[in-house]
């Protein structure tokens, strides 16, 4: 049996409702943390993801789940928040930064997680960033995570008082197939999760956006059935 | 005459509607920046400050002003957002971190400014943090600002493409009296600004909270009349 930290040790876990963050929540629970799941409604198109976050938090035994709303669409600049920019469906972009990148999104979400952690007196943040599949996103890289953690340890009352904050990014270097394998071992029900950038109101995935392609390829590579419900394609 | 940067050089200026950030906006304008003023409605008690921000932005020639709403009160933990914690009125606390500290507030506000800067393709952020009057706030210290800037330069598409972001904190080491002197030289009308943590609906200051005490002492030390409108005190 693994050594587990005390159940009174609290963690804030960023939970989008997608595959990656669900896996990270399961990992944090497995390590014995009392998990406070934070979802951020930043005006994203894929709002059914937020409904998925509520279901995933419950299924994986989070202590509580909060959704904080912030209107990043006011700034524009991303296909995920700006209706005038189309979500690409022609295959995963190989070079450069995708139009689905949301400016400073991870910095904002981590800042909110930091605020909640300070109020909860939690010293652990869990974040499902991935530098493999999302290699085009600057704020998914390990060097960014280290710089955020360093800044966070200068930012808060808790840090000033010597309670060091740790930013855990357990899947940052894992392939999608490995993430899925880890999650299945921990009992994650991926049919509850939504990854699609433009899922319909019934939480059915489009099957053609970058997020769908990465997810489907992950299940194929893991050699397990894909439980995702897809929108029926027209003939 | 000062060398000025081109007017096409954009800056995002965090503008609370208080004395400090109004002065910083005037400084950024004086340096020739086209200023995009960002105010953050984080559920603070002193909401008239946000109305002041709109007036100050107009008076000081900002290109535009946006107010972004985010519900930090959902987390609680500060006298400024949590109705169950009273704003202190018995004089400025000498030691430790005041209850008016809002967890991770500056990190969240700077993250939002970073997002807007990226969309605008601005490389300059101006922030009226002050490490003298607010020495108890960890996220007002110069070492925190440097860590945020470093993180920001790893976070964004612009930074990855080589456009370095600069976080300007021109008043961080100034006393309130010096800030007021600088602002008056630049034509700031301080009667438009609201600093009070619990101003009334007519934007009249309480005169007894920490922010009022620091502000009033600043005008006294600067040797200039205090234009603040105070709530009449009961006999």
Quick overview of this protein structure:
Two copies of one chain form a homodimer. The first copy, chain A, has 235 residues and is an alpha/beta fold.
Return Rg of chain A in Å: 17 Å
- Assembly type of the chains comes to homodimer
Structural class of chain A: alpha/beta
CATH class descriptor name of chain A: Alpha Beta
Q: How are the strands of the largest sheet of chain A arranged?
A: 3-2-1-4-5
Query: How large is the share of residues in beta strands of chain A?
Result: 5-15%
Number of strands of chain A: 5
User: Shape of chain A from CA axes?
Assistant: globular
CATH superfamily of chain A: HUPs
The CATH topology of chain A: Rossmann fold
| Portion in helices of chain A | 25-40%
The overall number of domains of chain A is: 1
How many angstroms does the end-to-end distance of chain A come to? 52 Å
Order of helices and strands of chain A: EHEHEHEHHEHH
Mean pLDDT score of chain A:
87
CATH architecture descriptor text of chain A: 3-Layer(aba) Sandwich
The pair of chains with the biggest contact is:
A-B, 43 and 43 residues
| Major sheet characteristics of chain A | 5 strands, parallel
Describe it for me?
Two copies of one chain form a homodimer. Chain A has 235 residues and is α/β, with parallel strands linked by helices. Chain A has a single domain, classed as HUPs (Rossmann fold), CATH 3.40.50. Helix content of chain A is 34%, strand content 11%. Chain A contains seven helices and five strands; from the N terminus they run βαβαβαβααβαα. In chain A, strands 3-2-1-4-5 form a five-stranded parallel sheet, sandwiched between helices. In chain A, helix 1 (19-30) links the parallel strand 1 and strand 2 (34-41). Chain A is globular, with a radius of gyration of 17 Å. Chain A starts with 9 loop residues before the first strand and ends in a 13-residue tail after the last helix. The mean pLDDT of chain A is 87. At the A-B interface, strand 3, helix 3, helix 4 and helix 5 of A face strand 3, helix 3, helix 4 and helix 5 of B.
